[in-house]
Fold this sequence. Notes:
8-stranded mixed β-sheet, two-stranded antiparallel ribbon, Dihydrodipicolinate Reductase, domain 2, disordered N terminus, 181 residues, 10 strands
Amino acid sequence: MLKLDHTTATRRPSKRLRELVRGGEIGTLQYVDSVSDHLGLVQPDVDVLWDLAPARSVHSGQHPAGRVSAVAVAAHGSDPIGAGRACVHTCRCGCPTAGIAHVHVNWLSPTKIRTMIIGGSRRTVVWDDLNPAQRLSIYDSGVDRTHAGHARPGGAQPGAGLLPDRRQAGPALPEGEALRG
C-alpha cells in the first residue's frame, strides 16, 4: 500500500496499484524502483527523503504483517547546495520477498519525474504519475530463464532471455481530486 501521503494514497491510480499487488495479479513481488524528482522548495524542517519518499513506499500484502520487511537498508543523502539538509537522496532496501526496492528523491532536478515500477513474476506495473492519459501501464513481459537461446561456448547454460513485450492498456481511471475518491 502507498502510505503516509494521503493525497497520493487516496487517488485512483494508487488504489488500483495496491489492488494489483495485494491481489497477486503481478505474481511474486521481485523489485520496486521509484523516482521522484523535481526542482522544489528546500523544506526548513525535513530533508528530501522525509519530504518525498513516504509517498513512494509499497506494502505488498505478501508478508504476514502485510508489509515487505527490509533485511538490509542503505541510504545516502547529499547536500550539494549547502542547505543544511539532504536535497538528493537514494535509499535501497534488500527485501526477502521483493528482491530489492530502490527509492530516489531529488529537490534539485530541473525535470519533474514521478514514476514507480513494480516488477512481479507475472506482470510489471509502471505508474507514471505525470501522464494523465495513462497513469498505470501493465506489462505481461518478464524474463524467460528456460529459453534455449544461443548455446554458449563450452556447453554453458544459456542465459535468461527477455520475453516479448506484451503491454496491456492501462486501466481507465477517471481523474479527480485526490481526497474525493
